[in-house]
Structures are given as structure tokens and as C-alpha cells.
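Worked example 2:
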Amino acid sequence: MSLIIPAAAQQTQVRAGIAVHRIAAMILRHWYLLTSSWPRTLELIYWPAMQLVTWGFSQAYISQNSGFFTQAGGTFIGAVILWDILFRGQLGFSMSFLEEMWSRNLGNLLMSPLKVSEFLISLMAMSIIRLSIGVIPMTLLAIVFFGFNFYGLGLALVAFFCNLIFTSWSVGMISSGLVARNGLGAEGLAWTLMFVLLPLTCVYYPVSVLPNWLQVVAWALPPTYVFEGMRALLIDHQFRADLMLEALALNAVLFVAGAIAFLALLASARKQGSLIQSNE
């Protein structure tokens, strides 16, 4: 006796899991958008390169006049590259989301078989693609101009990258959710939200520089552990695995909070009907 499965049940089975082909289709869509416009690609390379050159020559000057920077050679350049991973990772996520808002396509996507989880995974994948286009040339320039081999950090680099990229995705989900809920009038959050963390995560200076009450805030943010770990590695030649594990634990909480916030804001946007209008 043959088993007949109703069409509705088959559709439920298909939608129960993550469909790789739908994620790949979204990645391919954004890849075509990216590669069809050379200014988009050039911008990904230009800003990281300019930031590296500016700060790199600043460190070259300071190192000639300060014993600390001579001892801690590479801390500025390392901080610039790690900050760019954090910022560009979030921006790559948010920009791919904004592409759908600008083209008024978000409502169409969410009415298609594409699930929200698949949509988010595709945005994360595009975040890494955009990030790679900008950061890889940046690291090569660091070797050519300043003799700083970012890849020489070894396995520590993997821990640094994973923690920073998780933070960038978490912030990207929150900023994208706010844009979906409030329309394109809030798109400035995609550019500015991460910069709120810049002074608090101690990118270019140790946590001890901050007032005691602000240090508590700094240690509540995962990137702080990464930048402290980077300085410990370059100055003391010691890999602080404890810092990386603490950052990972905080990132797990932040990532879940970001996903919940995105889903809640998206549900509110659906209720308000702002997904179709996408206006300011």
C-alpha cells in the first residue's frame, strides 16, 4: 500500500528545516548587486585602506618619539584592522539588508517561501564576503608598508575574528530591525550604531584608562576582551584564552538578544504595514 502525503504536509516538511538553496539564492542576488557596480566594490576596498595608511603612518611617527609604542609595535595597526573587522562586519550585514529596503523588496521576500532564519543567514554570509573584499587588501598593505603581518597572530586571529564577527552580526540585527520598524528614516543607525561602542570597547587604549564606573560598562561588551587580548599578545606575547572565552559567552547572550530584537521589530513592522511602504 503506497503512502500518500498531502501537498500541505509536504510543504510543511520543506519549511521545517533550513533550505540551503534559498540561502544561496539570496547570497547570489546580493553578489550580483555588489559586482554589477564597481563603485560599491571600490568603496569596500578604499575606506579600510585609507584608515590603515592614516593610522599606520601615525604610529610610525609616534614610535620614533615614544618608548611605549616602540615596545608595543603593531598595536595601533592591529587595533585598526580588528576595529575594521567589527565595523565592516556589521556594515556588510546592514548594507545587504538596506539593499532590500531601498529596492522595496523586503515585503516580497518575506511573503515568499524564504524564512526569516534563512534570510538572516544569507545576510551573515554577505557580511563575510563584503568584509573579505575590504580587509584582505588592507592586511596586505599592512605587510607592504609597515611590515605588520596580521596573519602572524596565528590561531589567536581565529578567536579574535569569531568574537568580533558575532558582535557585528548582533548589532547588525538590532540596527536592521530598527530600520525595518521605523523605515528608511532610521537608516543612519546602520552607519552610527557601532561607533557608540568605539570609545567603550577600548580599541586604541587599555581599559585601565577609563574611569572605574565606565570600566564596568566596557567589560560588559565582548569586543573589549578582543582588544585587550590583542594588546596582551603583541606587548606581553601572551595569548589570553580566558578573555576569549568570556567574550564568547557574552557574544552568545548578545547574539540571542539581537535575534529576539530583530524578530520582535520585524513582527511590529508587519503589524504596522511598514514593510511594504519602507518610506522615511
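The chain has 13 helices and no strands. Residues 1-14 have pLDDT under 50 and may be disordered.
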